[in-house]
What does this fold into?
Amino acid sequence: MDRVQAMQVFLRVVESGSFIRAAETLSLPASSVTGIIKRLEKHLQTRLLNRSTRKLSLTPEGEQYFHRCRAILDLIDDTESSLHGSAERPQGRVRVDMPGGIAHALILPQLAQFQAKFPDIYLMIGINDRQVDLIQDGVDCVIRTGRLHDSTLIARHLGELRWITCAAPVYLNQQGIPKNLEDLQRHSAVHYFANTTRRTGELNFVEAGEKVAVQVAGTVAVNETGLYIKLGLAGGGLMQLAEILVVDHLHSGDLVEVLADMRPEPVPVSLIYPHHRFLSPAMRAFADWAAGLFTKVG
It folds into this structure.
């Protein structure tokens, strides 16, 4: 029995809470994952997991073994990461999740460059605007925007995104161009909401060095960046989002920036990974490459 592999499989089963989910993230048949855990328990002569039809839970011995396995595997990863050859030609699988806007506007257009530079890295890109659970979803790292509050995660700063307020000419021709924040009372906006909050309709500005939030009326709210932009292009109202997401529409005139002298503060972008994981050479290569992309647009 390959004990290192057995430890890796055991950790992934515990972290994902499911044999099937662990098998998917490890690209192994579910029967193989089940067999590895059974052989591991037989080798250790102790039960590690309590199994039920609804969920898995650790036995006291399993919990002790889990923490020690995690420390051992982290040490192995850190040792391998320090080898010069590994750093020179990183390889392996990296699962990264990111917002759809960043993926389509920044990452995917330059992906061929990454693949040419790092041909031995198998990159798995998950695209959604919700915050994923890195452990439960089997994700190595995520790209997130905004201020971070989860102290159980490690964050690497990638860069910042400039945010603007804009609208389609058809909307501005009907409603007029706002010249100041007071003008926003007669305007409407396309609202955006996150899955973690129901707050919508608030646009942020910096006026005379002070941050100001203004509630702007609207009739529709969405939680997906692509749809948000489509509604704005159709004349649905004012939008506020990262400039990089609509730079082509601004150049073509399909969107027009307003209140440019009151732009909101730039939004930080970070690469997040669990505190118990070291950055593997492959993850570090992706992080360095992504940081370079944000530097160019910052």
Summary: The chain has eleven helices and 14 strands.
